[in-house]
Amino acid sequence: MNIINIEHIAKIYEVGSEIVKALADVSLRIDKNEYVAIMGPSGSGKSTLMNILGCLDTPSRGIYNFEGFNVSEMDDNQLASIRNKKIGFVFQIFNLLPRSTALHNVELPLVYAGIGKVERLERASKALESVGLSDRVEHKPNELSGGQRQRVAVARALVTNPSIILADEPTGNLDSKTGNDIMKLFQDLHDKGNTIIIVTHEEEVARHANRIIRIRDGFVERDEIVRERTFLSGN
Amino acid sequence: MRNFLFELKEGLFISFRAIGANKGRSVLTTLGIVIGVWAVVTMSTAIKGIDNAFKTGVASLGSDNIFIDKWAWFNHDTPWWELRNRRDLTMEDYEKYRSLAKLPIAIAPSNWTRKLVKHGDNIIESVFLTATTSEYLNTTNLTFSEGRFFNELESNGGRGVAVLGSAIAEKLFPNGGAVGNIIDVSGKKMRVVGILEEQGSWVMGDFNPDNQIYFPLEFTFKNFIHRRESITINVRAANPQSVAEVEEEAIGIMRRVRSLKYNEDNDFSINQQSGLLGEIDKTVGVIQIAGYFITGLSLFVGAIGIMNIMFVSVKERTKEIGIRKAIGAKRRTILGQFIAEASIICLIGGFIGLIFAVITGFVINQWLPTVVQFDAVILAVGISLITGIFSGFAPAYTAAKLDPVDALRYE
């Protein structure tokens, strides 16, 4: 079953009098339980693609279909609702609310989803437990290590049971050991049936996925199945 | 509706967290509103106090009284020279009026002079003295702390007896013991027979009983002025409802007494306390407008301060707004959050301002009879809330409109 169906989308910015084509013409399909890496050098348009895939932005042209909803024609509030319920974000620099506890950070998407306090706390605790942080729920981000912060971010992404998890350079700010831990977390999530999209410029990171989409100059340069996937063994 | 309440509740929680996280700045922001609300509430309390003071002050004059006089006290329509050219109102007129009037419960003629008053080394220059008859007491609500008013015998005989206002007694006899003592009024001796209780009618200026001395009218005719000089007739009606009838009767009698023809205007004036109240209301009204304008201005400055800080706060928390939007906050959620934040800051400020205003109210109460009124509390809370919403709206709208992609990228 395919979750994401993109047909001939383009994104064009006007910077002063200049017209910049961030995405020229991209078509993609991503199925349920795929593990996709989107790769490309900086300026290739991969960030723009990620923003559109994450419903943070809409394409200038073309059609974006997300689980049968025509996202390309939605307004701000509808997009917010899709992001809230269907997409879990993991960012390179974690993007946690600095003055809130881990628990509150994880709980927040459920607040916006209109879920009551009791259920919220239960689900948030469970999400933190699933990333191995049940002993850190009352800590604030500055009391956590980089790896732990990223785990909180993953828990926040998971808590709403989204259709896809969208990670933007999730290991970019971590050393290779903790980076691997996070990649192992994604691998486990994938094994449990989640659909994961990782945006990265590191070949090594991308090789954890089972499919790599390479973007260059606003086009899909190559879309390939990974033959020799990196598997991390559990500890 | 349930959804709205849920969002309101969560919005308030989020706002409380944000305010708690920025304590220092929140305190500074609040200061503007504290001062603003304090000023407005204190102002309204003070005005209420002035109003009360005027009203109770005038009350010692008696609300059921009319004063027949050559002069119109509060009417500015008749030119002063016309008033001056009127015939004097004499004791003769008073006697005739007194014999004809049926409705009043008390009638007393009076005349005012200023004299130097001494007792030993204590000297008061230019004291306001009311020369009148013993019946005068029945036309007023005066009360005594010591002694009595002069009696009919003393009054008719023009004896040198005096009743002192509380402030006068205090100045002439700092150590007490006034009653029975002799005071010197412009070289004439008078024996003190009574001291009035403090009436607190300072709004009446010279006419404040606290600063007056009362003595027999006959004494003044013997020693200070000629019998034919103009006097004022104090007339008291039985109750407030009959004041109008007493006035009607007085006009009729006085026209007869003065032998006025049907086509001649009254050559006397009927004055009333309500005239004074009208003057007072005008004065208080001006104070009120000026006061509310000035304090309103301070509140406005406070509101601008909050708006400014909310704008800074939105700028500073652009990233946070980006994160919130990325994980599903809608525009109205962000809008609500920032408006709630500004409103809570204002409400807290308003509450603190109110506490200060209540304290100030007690201080003001030393001079003016007033405390912070319940409507002032409503006013304070209302103003704070409106200020919060007003000053929070523009920054909140800016925050709500932020593009999530730009906001997330913001460093």
Question: How would you describe what is shown here?
Answer:
The complex is a heterodimer of chains A (235) and B (411). Chain A is of the alpha/beta class and 235 residues long. Chain A has one domain (2-225): Rossmann fold. In chain A, 33% of the residues lie in helices and 29% in strands. Chain A contains seven helices and ten strands. Chain A has a six-stranded mixed beta sheet with strand order 6-7-8-3-9-10, with helices on both faces. Chain A has a four-stranded antiparallel beta sheet with strand order 2-1-4-5, with helices on one face. In chain A, a hairpin with a 2-residue loop joins strand 9 (211-216) and strand 10. Chain A starts with a strand and ends in a 10-residue tail after the last strand. The model of chain A has no long low-confidence stretch (mean pLDDT 91). With 411 residues, chain B is of the alpha+beta class. Chain B folds into two domains: 2-57 and 278-409, no CATH class; 65-273, no CATH class. Helices cover 55% and strands 16% of the residues of chain B. In chain B, strands 2-3-8-5-7-6 form a six-stranded mixed barrel. In chain B, strand 2 (106-119) and strand 3 (122-132) form a beta hairpin. In chain B, helix 1 crosses helix 11 (331-364), helix 2 (23-59) runs antiparallel to helix 9 (273-316) and helix 9 (273-316) runs parallel beside helix 12. Chain B is elongated. Classes of the chains: A alpha/beta (235), B alpha+beta (411). The interface between A and B is medium-sized, with 27 and 26 residues.
